[in-house]
Design goal:
single chain, mainly alpha, 4 helices, globular
Length: 75
């Protein structure tokens, strides 16, 4: 994952964690897909930066789902 010039976009352009967070019967796959899309658009320069980005943008989402998004985006 490499950062490119002019790629800094705010999370306000993407669905918030409340908008995509799974409800009691919801699918966590929707959340993982949303986070993967954010990573694809933001293109963080390192794994640490990606985790920081996801933690800021999706603070209520468990770490396991943030890691799942990173793994899904790496494929």
């Amino acid at each position: 994952m490499r950062a490119t010039a002019g790629s800094s976009q705010s999370f306000s352009q993407y669905p918030s964690s409340q908008a995509v967070a799974p409800n009691a019967g919801g699918e966590p796959n929707h959340v993982v897909h949303a986070m993967t899309a954010v990573l694809a658009r933001q293109r963080p320069g390192s794994t640490a930066e990606a985790l920081r980005m996801l933690r800021r943008g999706y603070p209520d989402i468990p770490l396991a789902l943030r890691i799942a998004a990173m793994c899904a985006g790496a494929k």
